[in-house]
Design a protein that fits this description.
about 220 residues; Homeodomain-like_sf; 2 domains; Arc Repressor Mutant, subunit A; mainly alpha
């Protein structure tokens, strides 16, 4: 059955839809548990039994979803990147047409995904090197895809004359690294910032370097001036 046919069948069968929803909820529960355990112990030191204990399920249940620990690790990392692919475009679409509003919504969207997946984000930096070559290549491709919405927004803002003529790809990756820092240095930032404060402060710093001087008064609410 094709994926489209499967989707149609789900729409027509409420019981099937409910089963699929429970299955996805269980899968996310396992991914979250694996991320927490692997961050604490390192993926090489973690057993499927430890992940099962963290999730409060049987080892056999984990193997119904993931064939091996390496497959589970890859799924934890991919889950974060796939969340970006859903959450960020939705945030941009809801922001309207203004270049700064759209960039601000996108940056907040990235940060919200990071906040939801703090353990998995840290794990990505620590453990992605332990993936096989195919896994590492998949992660690289998804990371490139993750940066593209920001690059497009920056180009649009430059063409509109709102942003300075910066190099979009470089700035996009800088913004992504700032979003990741909420997880990587959370122990430090949480002493001073709430999540909302962090997003506002970092966005203000970025926009001070991006917005053309003649437009700064227009966007004073973002620039914290």
């Amino acid at each position: 059955m094709s994926s489209a046919a499967a989707d149609d069948a789900t729409l027509l069968d409420p019981d099937l839809a409910a089963r699929n929803a429970r299955k996805e909820q269980r899968r996310r529960q396992l991914l979250d548990a694996a991320a927490r355990v692997m961050e604490r112990e390192g993926s090489q030191a973690v057993s499927m039994q430890a992940v099962a204990a963290e999730a409060g399920v049987s080892v056999g249940l984990i193997y119904r979803y993931f064939g091996s620990k390496d497959e589970l690790l890859l799924a934890v990392i991919v889950n974060v990147l796939e969340d970006f692919a859903v959450a960020v475009p939705a945030a941009i679409d809801a922001a309207g047409d203004d270049p700064v509003e759209r960039l601000a919504a996108a940056f907040r969207g990235y940060c919200e995904v990071i906040d939801r997946h703090r353990h998995a984000t840290v794990l990505t930096y620590r453990e992605s090197k332990s993936l096989d070559e195919a896994g590492r290549e998949r992660i690289k491709e998804l990371e490139v895809e993750t940066s593209r919405p920001l690059s497009r927004l920056l180009r649009d803002g430059i063409e509109a004359g709102v942003f300075r003529p910066v190099e979009p790809e470089t700035v996009a990756y800088n913004l992504l690294l700032v979003a990741h820092a909420w997880a990587l240095k959370h122990w430090y930032f949480e002493r001073t910032y709430s999540f909302d404060d962090y997003v506002r402060a970092q966005l203000s710093l970025a926009l001070h370097g991006l917005v053309q001087p003649k437009h700064r008064r227009r966007y004073a609410r973002f620039l914290q001036e």
